């Protein structure tokens, strides 16, 4: 069974179909660490940060590196 995630990107509503959603959490900015980019790796990172929740970590996907503006509009 698939789940749908809705949000706004490039000032337009988008929907994403995902295989599974385990949990929905709210993070405040203090619980998100930025991902540092290595000088050896010049490719764009799909991960913009790591969220700390209880005793675990969550990778935060940067949708603008996965979905181009042309694909939305």
Q: How many β-strand runs?
A: 5
Q: How far apart are the termini?
A: 28 Å
* Low-confidence sequence ranges: none
Major sheet characteristics: 3 strands, antiparallel
Binned, the helix content reads 10-25%
Based on CA atoms alone, the radius of gyration comes out at 14 Å
Q: Supply the helix-strand structural class.
A: mainly beta
Q: Categorize the overall geometry.
A: globular
SSE series:
EEEEEHH
Assess the beta-strand content as a share of residues: 35-45%
Mean pLDDT: 85
| Strand line-up of the largest beta sheet | 3-4-5
Number of helical segments? Answer: 2
Give a written overview of the molecule.
The protein has two helices and five strands, in the order βββββαα. The chain has 73 residues and is mainly β. The strands form two sheets. It has a three-stranded antiparallel sheet with strand order 3-4-5, with no helix packed on it. Strands 1-2 form a two-stranded antiparallel ribbon. It starts with a strand and ends with a helix.
For this entry, give a set of tags.
73 residues, mainly beta, 3-stranded antiparallel sheet, 5 strands
Secondary-structure map:
Blueprint (H helix, E strand, L loop, with lengths): L2 E7 L2 E7 L13 E3 L12 E7 L2 E6 L1 H4 L2 H4 L1
Short description:
The chain is mainly β. 11% of the residues lie in helices and 41% in strands. Strand 1 (3-9) and strand 2 (12-18) form a beta hairpin.
């Amino acid at each position: 069974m698939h789940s749908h995630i809705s949000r706004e990107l490039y000032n337009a509503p988008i929907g994403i179909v995902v295989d599974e959603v385990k949990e929905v959490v709210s993070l405040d900015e203090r619980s998100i660490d930025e991902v540092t980019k290595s000088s050896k790796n010049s490719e764009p990172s799909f991960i913009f940060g790591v969220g700390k929740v209880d005793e675990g970590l969550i990778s935060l996907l940067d949708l603008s590196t996965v979905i181009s503006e042309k694909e939305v509009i």
